[in-house]
């Protein structure tokens, strides 16, 4: 793929890692992919869905698809793929017509990644094709960061597909995607937390947005939270789970928790907090030295397919810095985080995804 002229169009491996988890969590079986290129995300989807799963893959360029086809065949998943060389809109319109005639079940997961001028048209059709609680994943929505750049700079070459390239881009993410949908109680609690001297410990709102989606995807009803602070992620969880859902929240500092408690009460979700049983979902944002200990215990408390999310797994980027460039007071937590990330990556009991949201969150799905 590296020799292909337009290799930057390919889905990045870290995006693919998150996509694989979404496919598994949603139990996806029938999917559409709009924009195949050489087939990295197509192969990933085919490997993630069950053997009798089906993918409708649409692209105007069969040549690039055929570059990756030998690898797809070698992986033994070609039978799941129906490749259609075409503009996408006519194919989607035909699928909508078939649904009106035959009423087949809805599509589960979709990956539009081609022809951005038609993204809105794709979205309108996909809202009719995707089942309730289905997932649509749109790739390349930051355009290498140019959406947050002054227009005179946006045309300059930027070879990196990494997302968090500037404070301006992070601000853009929050203002374009997170804040407009943040429930009022969460905004109120975020504002209160900002007055705390250790406000940096709070869960970042963009990480919270992903947590909310994960909680809903797994239909979480019983969860654990280790490390509550003022309760932003706790309130988010309580708002996401059903009215008879339960959360066990553990923290050594009740004082910080009580800062947010009036907001939790006002939101009418206090009754969901503090119940113990087997759990669907856990969120850990506590003392880093014990993350491995928490992980071992949570592997016994989480159901198969349950999720645990660890916060601060990038440590402000220090995990990728030479040690001599890291402030002395940050080095211990840096090494603890690196050890945790290596430990989780090697743990066969979990499927993992390290998402560069906030200060880094690692999502672990228990598989055995």
Q: Key features?
A:
18% strand; 39% helix; 368 residues; 2 domains; 5-stranded parallel β-sheet; 6-stranded mixed β-sheet; alpha/beta; single chain; 12 helices; Rossmann fold; 11 strands
Task: Give the topology.
Layout: H1 13-25, E1 30-34, H2 40-48, E2 54-59, H3 62-74, E3 81-85, H4 88-102, E4 107-112, H5 119-129, E5 130-136, H6 167-178, H7 184-193, H8 205-217, E6 222-226, H9 232-240, E7 246-250, H10 254-266, E8 279-284, H11 291-301, E9 302-311, H12 331-346, E10 350-355, E11 361-366
Helix pairs in contact: 1-2, 4-5, 7-10, 8-9
Give the terminus-to-terminus CA distance.
33 Å
CATH architecture of the largest domain: 3-Layer(aba) Sandwich
Strand content: 15-25%
State the order of secondary-structure elements, H for helix, E for strand: HEHEHEHEHEHHHEHEHEHEHEE
The number of distinct structural domains comes to 2
CATH topology of the largest domain: Rossmann fold
CA radius of gyration is: 22 Å
What is the CATH superfamily classification of the largest domain? Vaccinia Virus protein VP39
State the helical fraction: 25-40%
How many strand units? Answer: 11
Largest sheet: 6 strands, mixed
Low-confidence parts, pLDDT < 50 over ≥5 residues?
103-109, 157-163
Mean pLDDT: 84
What is the highest CATH level, the class of the largest domain?
Answer: Alpha Beta
Strands of the widest sheet, in order across it, are 7-6-8-9-11-10
What global shape is seen?
globular
Helix run count? 12
Alpha-beta content class: alpha/beta
Protein name: Putative caffeoyl-CoA O-methyltransferase
Organism: Vitis vinifera
Family: Belongs to the class I-like SAM-binding methyltransferase superfamily. Cation-dependent O-methyltransferase family.
Keywords: Methyltransferase, S-adenosyl-L-methionine, Transferase
